[in-house]
């Protein structure tokens, strides 16, 4: 079933700037954000990218309370040593009493510009209270914004409201990017396109789709929802299968989405786009990726070439609860997962993978029941060093 979705040309080039991997030593861990110690009662929803200069940029929501909409600000810490140590905390977006959600970062590789997309909720309203209205204007709508940095994450532009081109005015009340990261395509007819993974409501009636830019993030367009996001429940209503979503480029330039389970079996939901995220195949389930209902990460490490295997990584809780953080590795464009290894056996919530300048892998994840956000670094050799777990 999945194999039929992913059939295509696998000729591609290895990513530039790859370096020799470290030996298969145990992963290293460093604290990045700690709730109650970094100026906020709650810090959640990680995003992480590596800038063109090699700086690791870790983003999150700084929350006044333990709630999704709690006067949130968007915060950042930078690391110049591959995630071993972290600098001072910076605020990159603040909308007064309104709540900011879902930081989702991407690096435009040609210019090095770092782009973060996020949403703003009106003060006092939440995604669950039924008071959010559809439309592009008015005091009770969710808005979509972008901020940019051209100096390695040191300073940030004023927020730009991109709601009008990234939100359907009818029916849709909630829009949510990621959370996690966006991607830039390298192959195929849409090479250079920036893609932000998206989901839209109303609450409990989710679609997943892409928002994309063909001019380095200056302007954004809205793709179409994947078919099969919502299915009949047998009682005249419907069940949403999907929710928070990430995307990965396949070797032929097509895109695969990987969504949190909202309904259906406790498995990740997937679909493939052959036109750069504009349209999608029907939502299916990946039988190999267990999901308790948690945001997770999918990340392209290398494209197939003479000197490199195709490698796609996935991280998420391999458990019925948000525990047992596990990293998976696919050599066949996500058709199967040949390797999996436990990265962190305890509490493990939202996670985001990245590749570091020395060839090692980074994973920014929530632990301690989401009261601490930690950065793990590990060598690909560590992941591949032992037999596949049953």
Question: What can you see in these coordinates?
Answer:
The protein has three helices and 28 strands. It has helices at 2-6, 163-166, 380-384, and strands at residues 28-34, 42-50, 56-63, 73-79, 90-93, 99-107, 114-121, 143-149, 160-161, 175-177, 180-181, 183-184, 194-200, 207-213, 221-222, 230-232, 238-240, 245-249, 255-259, 267-273, 284-290, 297-302, 311-317, 323-330, 339-347, 351-355, 361-367, 372-378. 4% of the residues lie in helices and 42% in strands. It is globular. The chain is mostly beta strands. It has one domain (2-384): Neuraminidase (6 Propeller). Mean pLDDT is 93; it is low at 1-22.
Biggest sheet layout: 5 strands, mixed
CATH topology: Neuraminidase
Number of strands: 28
Number of helices: 3
DSSP strand (E) fraction? 35-45%
Helix amount: under 10%
Estimated structural class: mainly beta
Taking all Cα atoms into account, the compactness measure Rg is 19 Å
Taking strands numbered 1, 2, ... along the chain, how are they ordered across the largest sheet? 9-8-7-6-11
Specify the CATH class.
Mainly Beta
CATH architecture: 6 Propeller
Poorly predicted runs of 5 or more residues: 1-22
* End-to-end C-alpha gap: 22 Å
Instruction: Write down the domain tally.
Output: 1
Mean pLDDT, all residues: 93
Shape: globular
